[in-house]
Amino acid sequence: MAQHEIDPERLPYAPERLERKPDVGADHFFALDLRAGRVTAVEPFPEARKPAWKLTVDFGPVVGTLRTSAQVTNYSAEELVGRMVVGAVNLGPKRIAGFTSEFLVLGALDPDGTVRLLELPEGVQEGAPIA
């Protein structure tokens, strides 16, 4: 599965159905630039095939502000603005329905594929690396 898909009938992400992925080694993990960022804007994305928001996130002074498309419409725009999120910021841009997505926001998948965004404790600053 390259991308998640919400399917309340088949429950594709039920933990007991998912095989463990093969080992990739620490070098592959540490090559990812995972950062904390604060959502500064949320826009509808009606052109997307699946319900999604366009998120603008401030990743601090080094990375700056990046935008992404995220299938997290289980959150309202009001719940997202101001929220701290975790993003993979060095995967390269991807075009989605004419929109350039610049990072991948991270979350845990419910059995049906609903994304639950990772939560960060109060006090984490924008741009903080995730270890």
Description:
24% of the residues are buried. The two termini are 25 Å apart. The chain has a domain at 32-117: Beta Barrel (OB fold (Dihydrolipoamide Acetyltransferase, E2P)), CATH 2.40.50. The radius of gyration is 15 Å and the shape is globular. It has helices spanning 26-31, 60-63, 77-80; strands at residues 34-44, 53-58, 65-70, 84-88, 94-96, 99-101, 104-105, 107-109, 115-117. Helix content is 11%, strand content 32%. The chain is mostly beta strands. The chain has a 5-stranded antiparallel beta sheet. The protein has a two-stranded antiparallel sheet with strand order 5-6. The mean pLDDT is 93.
Low-confidence stretches: none
Q: Report the major sheet.
A: 5 strands, antiparallel
> What structural class do the secondary elements suggest?
mainly beta
Query: How many DSSP-defined strands?
Result: 9
Give me the CATH architecture of the domain at 32-117, please: Beta Barrel
Radius of gyration: 15 Å
Compressed to H and E, one letter per element, the order equals HEEHEHEEEEEE
Secondary structure elements and their pairing?
Blueprint: H1 26-31, E1 34-44, E2 53-58, H2 60-63, E3 65-70, H3 77-80, E4 84-88, E5 94-96, E6 99-101, E7 104-105, E8 107-109, E9 115-117
Label this structure with key terms.
131 residues, mainly beta, OB fold (Dihydrolipoamide Acetyltransferase, E2P), five-stranded antiparallel β-sheet, two-stranded antiparallel sheet, 9 strands, 11% helix
Provide a compact summary of the structure.
With 131 residues, this protein is mainly beta.
